[in-house]
Amino acid sequence: MENNYPNLQLVIKNDRLSAEKKNKLSLLGRILSLVLTYAFLAFMALLMIFPFYWMIITSLKEGMEINQMNPTFWPQIIRWENYSEAFSRLNFGTLLRNTLVVGIFSTIGTLFTTIFAAFAFARLEFKGRDFMFSILLATMMIPGEMMVTTNYVSVSLLGMIGKDNLMGAYAAMILPFMVSVFYIYLLRQNFKQIPNELYLAAKVDGKTDWQFLWKVMVPLAMPTLITIFILKLMGAWNSYVWPNLIATGNQDFWLITNGLRGTFSAAENINDYGVQMAATVIVTVPLLLLFIFFRKYIMRGVSRAGIKG
Length: 309
Prior knowledge:
It is a single chain. By secondary structure, this protein is mostly helical. It folds into two domains: 4-58; 81-305, Orthogonal Bundle (MetI-like fold). It contains 14 helices and no strands. The chain has helices at residues 4-58, 63-67, 81-90, 92-122, 129-138, 148-157, 166-174, 181-192, 196-204, 209-220, 222-238, 241-246, 256-263, 272-305. The longest helix has 55 residues, at 4-58.
């Protein structure tokens, strides 16, 4: 028995060395995994940021530098006058007015239709509710481009399109897009998270559905409503195809994206490329700032709406 003790101690020592070796390999594996993960994220971040960096430096370059065969990663001569020329040629005041009018009114209209529809599908009991909601969701599979022709015919028959009809042009750009199935679905999911006991307690207190909606459900769903407001406003700022159809033949009806495309569709001289890119920066910066300052509301609203089915 005594002769077995050294062998036992040797086995224990080997086990300790083996465990320490496994721990070191495991630690090395975790470190290597973190390094590879952050390296991949850094690479993807640079990949996403590089086009914005290239847009900014191009907006500060001369035309000759932009067109040369060997691209430069920093302007040899900085042309700040590209921005002042872009402001003057872009007619930024008129474009901003049209875009804000269309964006704000279409967003407010979308909020009202979304709130009413989401409340009906989440709380009210009526025959065929789930079937109607399924049909509504099915319309999300239809590409928006397929509705352009029918929408254009509708607004034409209603007399909204005319060369001097500014209010009609506003209405034509706002009314067809005041309903969003995706936003209705998003808000409905959020409304369904509100405990049914609150609704029953409000009924016991004599509250109407209208009072319960505006005093209880809307305040509780405010993060999602803020998300819808921001996303809809960003969508209105970026819209191009439909406003371009409505504003054909009259530059006074252009939105900011139409103005950007129409003003610089043909370069008059070689420096117009830098001016066009400066105008692109001017149009892009407001959306970028909007996302930076309100990104937490977007994340919060989407996460709150996706928990309960």
